[in-house]
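Appendix B. One record, verbatim.
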Amino acid sequence: MNSSEHLSTRQYARILKAWVTEIGLDACIYGTHMVRLTKASLIYRRTKNLRAVQLLLGHTKLESIVRYLEVEVDNALEVAEQTEV
């Protein structure tokens, strides 16, 4: 594979499954979706920047980020009001 080529979703899933299995974790629990959610949650927790998480995940609606991260609505609204777009 050429270094400029992108990984397919399937290739990424295979690589992640092999890595998770190699370190002794259950690949059924630690899949690509869990890694995506964990990364987004960590970014939100550290920055409180919903807009950054929205851009990284490619979501079009802020409400979907709030549901995805299971953020408290009041907290999300407060953070959203402080975030310039």
